[in-house]
Structure to design on (213 residues):
């Protein structure tokens, strides 16, 4: 535990130093496409609901733009796509890990691991987090990752290290949290995971075109 705490502290100090240096010379904020233009049709998936975050949630989230939409492939299968974009991580603006937010909303996790996802046209698979969460009789599969400069990162600690590297090398700290939530029907956990993975494969390149490269 002592070694792990030392690593976490070191990462935090490096992140603070890198971000401070990046900000001290004026940050280069990249251009991005607004999410209000995000498609209502993603392959076979059709937008069925756009969810608006209330003012209290937005004050905590502090994102510069977001998607919180439900898509359906058929009448019995829907998923939620949530993307929070931060054009800068100055003044504490940063993604909130679902690992911490979900328990605060009454969800408890029963499975936590990472899985590879192959994306058509990409030479190597991406690695993302997979959580199985429960609240009462409800169970969901939650797939999420952090994305910056076309880079997909599962680990929160690695994401912070990349913030330092991007601040020093590129003078920018923009990032996004991407999360897909799939309800588990009839206790079919793997089936829900497969649905989420297929949805990710469908929208991944479209999302990349909205985020800074």
């Amino acid at each position: 535990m002592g070694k792990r705490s030392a690593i976490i502290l070191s990462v935090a100090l490096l992140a603070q130093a890198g971000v401070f240096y990046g900000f001290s010379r004026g940050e280069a904020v990249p251009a991005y496409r607004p999410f209000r233009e995000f498609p209502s049709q993603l392959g076979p998936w059709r937008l069925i609901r756009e969810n608006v975050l209330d003012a209290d949630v937005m004050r905590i989230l502090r994102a510069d733009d977001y998607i919180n939409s439900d898509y359906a492939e058929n009448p019995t299968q829907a998923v939620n796509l949530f993307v929070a974009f931060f054009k800068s991580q100055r003044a504490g603006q940063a993604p909130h890990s679902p690992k911490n937010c979900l328990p605060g909303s009454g969800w408890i996790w029963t499975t936590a691991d990472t899985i590879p996802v192959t994306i058509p046209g990409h030479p190597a698979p991406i690695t993302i987090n997979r959580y199985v969460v429960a609240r009462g009789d409800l169970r969901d599969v939650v797939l999420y990752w952090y994305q910056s400069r076309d880079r997909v990162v599962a680990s929160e600690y690695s994401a912070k290290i990349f913030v330092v590297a991007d601040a020093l090398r590129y003078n920018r700290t923009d990032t996004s949290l991407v999360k897909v939530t799939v309800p588990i029907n009839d206790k079919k956990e793997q089936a829900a995971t497969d649905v989420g993975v297929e949805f990710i494969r469908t929208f991944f390149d479209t999302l990349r075109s909205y985020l800074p490269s």
Notes: The mean pLDDT is 87.
